[in-house]
Amino acid sequence: MNKSRFRVYTITADIVILTISYVLMTMLKPSGVRHYIPSHLTFFLVLALLWIIVSVASGKIGRGRIINLRTLLTHVLAANLIATSIAALLLFALRDLGYSRQVVFGTAITATIVELAFGALYMAFRKAPLLKPAPEKLSERELVARAHSSALEEIISDPQLTIRLQEGCSRERAETLSSMVSIDETKRLAIVSTAEAFNIQNLEQGDYSCIINLKPMNNITGLDTFLDKVNARLKEEGIFLCSVETLEQRARRLQKKYSSPVYYLIVIPDFLITRVIPRLRITKGLWDYFTKGANPPFSRAEVLGRLCRAGFTIKQEKFAGDMLCIKAQRKSAPAHANGNGYGLIIALPRVGRDGQLFNVYKLRTMHPYSEYIQDYVYDHHDLEEGGKIKHDFRVTTWGRFARRVWLDELPMIVNILRGEIKIFGVRPLSNHYFNLYEEDLRDRRIRYKPGLLPPYYADMPAGLDGIQLSEMRYFDSWDKNPVGTDLRYFARSVYNIVFRSARSA
User: Fold this and answer.
1) What pLDDT sits at residue 132?
2) 3-state helix, strand and coil shares in percent for the chain, rounded to the nearest 5
3) What is the DSSP string of 236-248?
4) Does residue 132 fall inside a structural domain?
């Protein structure tokens, strides 16, 4: 809309508001509209003329002067007060004093209030922020399909292998598993259906090129030990095929099995029994006693994490009904199993000053064993503007809430008290994320103590490149004025967090 058309519209709206206010004031008088409209018409015409002239001259009507609520208030009040005062002085000078003060001042006050209300509404629409749509929430199946859409060439299934697998599982799962492994990869093959590490250890002597276990991982006791034994029986780059019912697929199965009222009636007790009790130290003994050490339901992130901890890399994932089939390839010896994988507080190794690794303490917001699949998730998912991984399935529902309200950062107070980090500074990074940075920034980063609040919250950069530029600007400023830089960045970060809802999660 051009300026001249905008001015015509606003003048017309101004006169309409003033006229309605005038009529309304006359209606409130005992003698009513028929008496007061004719008797006060001269006043109204004078006021309307002055109303327009002063409004145009002062910038109340027109584009560019009123840019926010403060300028709206000052321009409207000033223009209307001047116009009403001049009209009253003219009438006084002409000795035309037979006008009702209620009609005279009531018209001006009512018109001013209405103008402010409509002006504020207009500003609200004009200043409405363009919000990006909420990130689409993808199902587990959609995430798996995206991650492996172009990862591997289609493998021609071996019909004989499919027949052999059907002896221990459903046809659908047998066909899915056989489609994930080539003939070359099955030159020395072992097909088992076991939950015991003993049976893996006692396979025929020699290293295998492929081991397929038809027993779901949910039923395997001592899963970490079991996977370590599988690793030991495979040759270098050997293949392990397994399957699991994930938490999401379990929920899907229960929803199919029960009606909606019954499902929602059992969902909370089911969560407490299968998710909380097995993971709390004080109740884990009860779970082990009644279930003989059975595994609680696994999230997809935990299953993949356990495999990667055991020295495997994830090559492919496919769904067969409610079962997730996984192809893992041996790449190294197993890492040490963390015996406290379900603890509420976790210690994460991070690169600190002088390149030294130290433990950062946080509340757990990810599924257990998620730390072992950071490379895998990064390779298969894009980054969000804040540098976080998009569609990060490792983060729990509770974790997303904790990150929004900063609960997950509270244990880092211990790191501050130890002198390992400061309040403001670049965030300590994992080795994987640290190695994504440019070499010159990596070299510069380790010269400074990391911090709790990073420059990201002050600059709000987009993407990894933007974050690196933001950190470089921070270092340049810090070198010149350390205290002033930290205070300035801290103030800007707090403002963005409080008033602009800046979050890293």
Assistant:
1) 45
2) 55, 15, 30
3) EEEEEEEEE-BHH
4) no
Q: The domain spanning residue 289 has which CATH number?
A: 3.40.50
Give the strand pairing for 189-192 and 208-213: parallel
Q: Are residues 265 and 167 in the same domain?
A: yes
Indicate the angle between helix axes 101-126 and 41-58, nearest 10 degrees: 30
Same domain? 202 vs 67: no
In a domain, 209, yes or no: yes
The domain boundary, picked from 269, 301, 330, lies at: 330
What Rg, from alpha-carbon coordinates, does the chain have? 35
Give the count of beta carbons closer than 10 Å to the beta carbon of residue 98: 9
Q: Measured between alpha carbons, how far is 87 from 78 in angstroms, rounded to an integer?
A: 14
Instruction: List residues bridging with 366 in a β-sheet.
Output: 395
pLDDT of residue 130: 42
CA distance 368 to 338: 10
Number of domains in the chain: 3
Q: Final residue of a domain: which of 330, 359, 378?
A: 330
Co-location of 349 and 326 in the same domain: no
CA pair distance 75, 457, nearest whole angstrom: 36
- CA 147 distance to own-chain centroid: 19
Q: Is 65 in the same domain as 109? A: yes
Residue of 247, 240, 239, 208 lying closest to 226 (CA atoms): 240
For residue 54, give the amino acid letter.
Answer: V
What is residue 131's predicted lDDT score, i.e. its pLDDT?
Answer: 41
Q: For residue 188, what are the domain limits? A: 156-330
Six-digit token string for 5 = 């058309």
User: Are 182 and 259 found together in one domain?
Assistant: yes
Q: Which pLDDT does position 497 carry in this prediction?
A: 76
Same domain, 320 and 349: no
pLDDT along the chain (505 residues), means of 10: 68 86 82 74 82 79 67 82 81 66 82 85 62 59 72 67 93 94 91 94 91 94 92 94 93 88 86 81 80 80 94 94 94 79 80 93 88 84 62 84 82 93 92 90 94 87 86 94 90 78 57
Q: Is 305 a member of any domain?
A: yes
pLDDT at 21: 87
Same domain assignment for residues 324 and 349: no
Nearest Cα neighbor of 170 from 216, 221, 227 is 216
Residue 385: inside a domain: yes
Got the DSSP string for 410-469?
A: GGGHHHHHTTSSEEESPPPB-HHHHTTS-HHHHHHHTTS--EEE-THHHH---HHHHHHH
Amino acid type, 432 = H
Instruction: Look at the block and give the residue holding tokens 């500003």.
Output: 123
Task: Work out whether the CA dihedral 291, 220, 378, 410 comes out positive or negative.
Answer: positive
Q: What is the pTM of this model?
A: 0.66
Query: Which residues touch 101 (CB under 8 Å, ≥6 apart)?
Result: none
